[in-house]
């Protein structure tokens, strides 16, 4: 039986997370619960769909797999029981190349690529808490998509595992993934507005 929503003063684990209402979406970062409701805007979902379509097409005949939210990614600390993990996130899109990390619950361990589309209520979390979490967890590449100014910030881990200075791409650019050199996405196709489709 599902439990009530988490309380802000408590620290939670994946074991707690599994007991919450199925019709509510949450993330855990450092044991702190973040609500994923209300649902994202239509523009947000359109951008997620456009990027997912490009990634899905690229990885169609490859061993890496692409998933779109809601999809649980558990990021336990070193030596931590996965059921006691205090970091459980639902990125907008993930690419996972290590099949051993995938199970019926989602992904256990760091995806190779994470994409987050910023919403007004998630900007700080995506650009601060999640940036730090993904770096520490070993996510090789992290894209932060800004719908308002139609840009994408790309962070890539160096040999020391740290994210260096990010690369910035605009709507007129081609985004070239660092860890997948042949993956190139036309951002004009990503940021196209629904009314623009089909126009010359």
From TrEMBL:
Annotated SUPFAM superfamilies: Restriction endonuclease-like
Signal sequence span is none
Q: What region holds the Putative restriction endonuclease domain? A: 16-186
A Pfam cross-reference name: Uma2
The molecule here is called Putative restriction endonuclease domain-containing protein
Q: What is the lineage of its organism?
A: Bacteria, Bacillati, Bacillota, Negativicutes, Selenomonadales
